Amino acid sequence: MALNPYEIRRDFPLLVKRRIVYLDNAATSQKPRQVIEAMAKFYEEKYANIHRGLHVLSREASEAYEEAHEVVAKFIDAKSWREIVFVKNTTEAINLVAYSWGLRELRKGDEVVVTIMEHHSNLLPWVAIAKLKGAKLRIVELGEDYTLNYEQLEESISERTRVVAVTHVSNVLGTLNDVKRIAKLAHEVDAICLVDGAQSVPHMPVNVREIGCDFLAFSGHKMLGPTGIGVLYGREELLSEMEPFLYGGDMVREVRYAGGAVRPSWNELPWKFEAGTPNIVGGVGLAEAVRYLERIGMDEVRRHEVELTQYALKRLRELNGVEVYGPSKVEKRGGVIAFNLRGLDPHSVAALLDERGIAVRSGFHCAQPLHEYLGLVEGTVRASFYIYNTREDVDALINALGKILMLVEGRASEIVGD
Ligand code: 7TS
């Protein structure tokens, strides 16, 4: 059934209670009552710590938390729920791989390939680990129409490459990268491929087996789930071989003490990577968020966003004085649109939009190298869509931008008049 954003909106208490045009979904999404209620119900009926007690509540809580891993595994078509590690967010998921895999596997002279469109989360952990190990970072830039330069990518991947870490969808340009092709290129030289799915998993069908990546990182809070819960998918063979990232409770099978020495052995997957009391209720909330998205269907989510993005791009181009950044073909992009108004800095535009009840983000969006590369020294304004956004939301944005442009022109003539 076709996604109906007007019906969907009714599930989101904040969107019902506040008259805000919410176009900051790339930063975080709003939450449906189903997710809020599932978490409240869990606190009211099942709450206890997991894997620690033999009592009924701990058993039920453990079951719910494990089931959440299964729900997520099915959502991205992982082979097993043991390949699903719950972490805090995308940032932690990528740091886990950089530290657990990179710190041990990278050698002097090795190379890590990333792209210029990475969020700082998929750039800085690699910068740090590469520096520590004497490895080199290679940065692939853009080709035509704000897409990745695949020619340069192929040239950058060599026998020295150990990691190819790339975003699936750019959180600024919206560029949709061909991660299946990139994973294949990485594997041809026996490198691992990590995909940053923070901006793709919430918005389109993502299938790890079809992509063929080794790792996929994403955040619950951008896909209707709560904050503080994110996912690292890792191929079981790799996760099994890797050392833990954080050490403490629940990640050990046993800790023997003999002859004055402590000897730990690690717990099975995914618990080896989930040290300490995890975000149990966050896991329950994320599973409910996935169920909500699955009821709609990820194909429908994508179709809706493509339609909205196409409409927004068309209307933005009709405005005189707006510069839009990102691929012109809608099939090559996600529902993220970065732009600038001629004569006005991005923060002023965002503040003026906020005065008109429209929430967007402005600045560098944690992707400053990309902005520097594009010569956008003050950053960009960014509108980003989700399932509850409507054509009226786009119209509101366009009307507000039209008024702001008139204001700028007015001011400009005042200045000229001086
Ligand atoms: N990777 C990408 C592509 C992202 O867009 C973000 C968050 C992250 C990683 C990090 O996610 P986190 O949940 O660990 O913070 N992006 C944004 C954004 O564009 N505006 O606010 C957060």
Q: What can you tell me about this protein's structure?
A:
The chain is built from 15 helices and 15 strands. The chain is α/β, with parallel strands linked by helices. Strand 6, helix 9 and strand 7 form a beta-alpha-beta unit. Helix 3 packs antiparallel against helix 11. The model has no long low-confidence stretch (mean pLDDT 96).
The CA-CA distance between the termini, in Å, is 59 Å
Q: Count the helices. How many?
A: 15
List cofactors, ions and other ligands: ligand 7TS
Strand content: 15-25%
Mean pLDDT: 96
**Which second-level CATH architecture of the largest domain applies?**
3-Layer(aba) Sandwich
> Low-confidence stretches at least 5 residues in length (pLDDT < 50)?
none
Helix content: 40-55%
Fourth-level CATH superfamily of the largest domain: Type I PLP-dependent aspartate aminotransferase-like (Major domain)
**What overall form do the CA principal axes indicate?**
globular
By DSSP, the count of extended strands is 15
